[in-house]
Amino acid sequence: MTFPRSIPIALLAAAAVCAEPNSTETKAAENKPKAFTERQRSWWAFQPVAKPALPAVKNAAWAKTEIDRFVLAKLEEKGIAPNPAADKATLLRRAYLTLIGLPPTPEQTQAFVSDASPGAWEKVVDGLLASEHYGERWGRHWLDLARYADSEGFKSDETRPNVWRYRDYVIKSLNSGKPYDRFVQEQIAGDELFPGDHDAIVATGFNRHFPDESNAANIMQRRQELLNDITDVTGATMMAMTYGCARCHDHKFDPILHKDYYRLQAFFANTRIEDGAELVSSERKAAWQAKQDLWEQKTADIRKQIDAVIQPRYKTRYQERLTRFPEEIQAVLNMPAEKRNPFEWQMYQKAKAQVTFSEADIAAMLKGDDKARYNELKKQLAVFDKIKPAPLPTAQTMMDESASAPPTHVLAVGNHEAKLYAVEPGFLSILDPADAKVQPVDGRSTGRRAALARWMTDPSNPITTRVIANRIWHYTFGRGIVATPSDFGAMGERPSNKELLDWFTYTFVHEDKWSIKAATKRLLMSNAWAQSSVFNEASAEKDPSNKFGWRFERRRLEGETIRDSMLSAAGALNAKMGGPGVFPPLPPGMTTRGGWLANEKSENTTRRSVYTFVRRNARYPMFEAFDMPDTHEPCARRNQTTSSTQALELLNNEQVVGWASKLAQRASNDSGMTPESRIERAYRLAYVRAPSPDELKSAAAFLARQTALVKDGDAAFADLCHMLLNSNEFVFIN
Amino acid sequence: MLGKLQHHWPVQSRRDFFTRAGSGLAGMALASLVAGDARAAKDALGARKPHHPAKAKSVIWLFMEGGPSHIDLFDPKPKLNELAGQPMPASFGKPITAMGTAGNTLMGSPRTWKQYGKSGAWVSNWYPHIANHVDDLCIVRSCWANGLNHVGSVCQMNTGDILAGRPSMGAWVTYGLGAANRNLPAFVILTDDREVVGGPKNWSSGFLPATFQGTQFRQGDAPILHLKSPKGTSTERQRSKLDYLKELNERWSRDKAEDTELEARIQSYELAYKMQAEAPEAVDLSRESEKTKEMYGLNDPDLSAFGTNCLLARRMVERGVRFVELYCGSGSGWDAHSNIEGNHGKWCRVSDKPVAGLLTDLKQRGLLDDTLVVWGGEFGRTPFNEKGNGRDHNPWGFTMWMAGGGAKGGRYVGSTDEIGLRYQERPCHVHDIHASILHLLGLDHIKLTYMHNGRAERPTIVGGGLINEIWS
Prior knowledge:
The complex is a heterodimer of chains A (734) and B (472).
Chain A: H1 7-19, H2 38-41, H3 66-78, H4 88-99, H5 106-113, H6 120-130, H7 132-145, H8 164-175, H9 180-193, H10 198-203, H11 219-239, H12 258-266, E1 271-278, H13 282-322, H14 327-334, H15 342-352, H16 359-363, H17 368-382, E2 394-400, E3 408-411, E4 419-423, H18 448-456, H19 462-477, H20 498-511, H21 516-524, H22 527-530, H23 537-542, E5 555-556, H24 559-569, H25 621-625, H26 644-652, H27 654-670, H28 675-687, H29 693-710, H30 713-726, H31 728-731, E6 732-733
Antiparallel strand pairs in A: 1-2, 3-4, 5-6
Helix pairs in contact in A: 4-6, 7-8, 9-18, 11-12, 13-17, 19-20, 19-21, 24-27, 27-28, 27-30, 28-29, 28-30, 29-30
Chain B: H1 2-5, H2 14-23, E1 58-64, H3 78-83, E2 113-116, E3 121-124, H4 128-131, E4 137-144, H5 150-159, H6 169-177, E5 187-190, E6 215-216, H7 235-253, H8 260-282, H9 290-295, H10 304-318, E7 323-328, H11 340-364, E8 371-376, E9 380-386, E10 390-394, E11 398-403, E12 411-413, E13 428-429, H12 430-440, E14 450-452, E15 455-457
Parallel strand pairs in B: 1-7, 1-8, 4-12, 4-13, 5-6, 5-7
Antiparallel strand pairs in B: 2-3, 4-11, 8-11, 9-10, 14-15
């Protein structure tokens, strides 16, 4: 009988099941070269990206752009005719919702519909790509991949007070048209590659978004879990490779070796969080310091007295927490800094946070005279608040602990205590079996992440380039050329049109110079994108799932876009950008759990959804109901479910009812007071089109019926508007 | 490995994926796309056949949150009382504990113990009412788990993993079996007034579609968020609005007949409307007899909150709710690091009579046969003391029990060592417990898969075996 003295032994047993039938490999504590099969070596995603020649097509008139040539060639090959173009109003609404996540106003619609000039469409597309709302819409896509949240997760789910700067960084980067290669370099290794660039420092928050437990008892296990998270996220997001499957053994289907998992992990082995990264110039810092020094000088005496109250309690608290740790961790905390090796520094950094307390933490524990004394001293100190400079803006980031990293081992079944053999940083062995070439940076950082970032943004990288090109396609068309945007492996989908993916990837990297906007514009300018979503039986018979793109893919909007669209139609959207997360009201009956601000300023309750605070353990109910991802791992493709919970959200939520009333008022104010003119205006605001005579008649009938029922014409009209906002036409992109 | 994977269904398209994964309602067919496992069929909540004949139709999980002390409730340890006051002998193996208490002296249990029923199972004087049901309880005394802290352990007991992000058992069961009553949520959570550690992560659908996530019932006559019509909206007015909405939607669908998602949305509003009527009825206790209320302890102010939840749980399973999870001491109530006498004294009293009442009531209504009742915490407690009069977390050996739904009563499974620190015979990991619960519901934990990130994920991750002793 073996006792589960620690988790590992049991996990070994469990993992044997996973690793079967070749579980013996996990025991091989040696680093043998691996022979890949021919099928693995010729896997499509690992082949260099060439620029295919434009294919010949029969219906050349339809093919407006190069993209169209590839799409049409495939359709003709399958004997499918593309759909005719959607009407102008549908197209305009589609473009607005796709690029900025808001519907066009009736005036914008009118202007476009009546503009017969040849450049009208391009003008719209350019305008939308230049809109600041573009970054808010497309930034949300990237935040899904980055598992972004404003809190820690786990039990306490504490707020990460400055992490919103990363969200703003993403929005700003997309709006400014930052090339994707630079965007990736900043997020993986901004501190190493662009020291002194504040945006690049904030960007390293990408790897800071792991869920974390602030009081984990087994901190080295926790460290391993964080490294696993970073490895999995990097593999999935940048490379569309399910690295996670190789944590315990060689990947069962793809050529990702067990050691490749740890080769990738080794790039991050020396990282630690840095939550106090200051975002100011040296001049501003100096000016701030001068003020701070003055304040410190004036308050030295009071602060000394405060210290005298705080310190004894601090010391006992420190001791209490310290002794919870196993002896080896205590030893590391107590040893002189110069004695610590890189691995011990990792221990130290993880443990230190648990034995470090703020003055407020300690003050809250004071009792009796101490407490009275402390409060009195704080009052005296407050007198000097007017000369105290405001704290400097800081970001929550990742950096290297030092220039030398602790060793990384391949771990049997992923267990941090079951080390097999050491590995150096490296890429997928099938692409490059050698160790990565790493140069330390200024003696302060290993340079490992810089090497990884360079590899990922090498124009000749066959994977990372295809992955982002496919993502752009996915977010624009609703379905990627590879339908599984974060799995380019054997268990994922094959590209439905490999030549098209390669051509698009090649032009994105070499001609559009990694510009997401330029690539997106290519798609928006195509006839392929302009097709209607109308069903065609003959086409559907040959391609039931629309894999080859013979029509536009109708789909439900995300919860955030539904909310933003309702606010926008109601004329109630507060367009203010950026800043800390905001707290729109929770449904009645729901306690303000985990620190949801109950009395948020009313103007903040109508901000765009991307600015809503993301509490990891409790997503905002409306977004959760509509499939917002759960922020514990990257999400490449949102689920699209339908449930009665969603119906209740839109039907009975008093906020939605309020927006419907605003829409009703707006429609009434804009138009004459006849029922027909109000209805017509409401239709234009909600649906971006006028009602047909039939629809007008049916709406008028409802209005009459409802007015008789509620004895209030305005309330009845608000009911009508409310149902427009609930309807399929409003929540679908068509 | 391939045998395990054949139940995944290849994604042919985004639409196909979403349609099959959960968007469709009410039996819409799109014959050309039907493929793969019935569990991934278009009608996400439609009732589905189990893998094998089920013994249980629903589950009531009584979650004693914070970690009840097995050695003070169901697992008497005379040896521990003998060694009380001494350091733990090294032969038991010193563990890392949450509070670093493993060097502390052993603490005996001051409880008095008796054997009950025909089976003669031991129960301490903290659970006098539940003790009368031992012949219906299958007491598993060798449970073990991986987490040391509450959040990870509660998460694992719900989802199989100490790290959040995986679907909870209730979500897997709903995914596997669908709903038996479409007018109520299939997976319901009832809590005390404090928040469960980790919050809604514990009843999340994880990577499964959101349709399968649990719904937390709140106190009062509107247990579901946004259940009530907007202020001042009568049923008639609401119905009239919905009729107009239907008109709008049907008109828009006229040339989109192939799009089942549009139809699913129309249906979802009809379901919501029915739920508005049925859910308040499900939580309305006014028709329950005084005798029933008394049986659940509703007349005792200390017991009435948890007793009400127990009674609600019965009403739910009566109405076809698949999985009811009922927290007692939500927010680590049972976490007796100090003063275990006061702490457990309180929570045992809170839970004893209501749980016994629930068992009695289920039995007399014939519901216990196909309702599996599960009792337990996220872990047990240590034999060594903390702060002199409390006990630390113990995931290495603890007790859970099951009743009804095919679990054979009046028996023990497994044992712990002489002081109750670690399992000894027949270890039952959380994955084994999950696999066994699914088994009783007719689901095979190996076949119940969902394709995610290139892997056919299952409820037991990479582990899990059946605890046959529970039913055979």
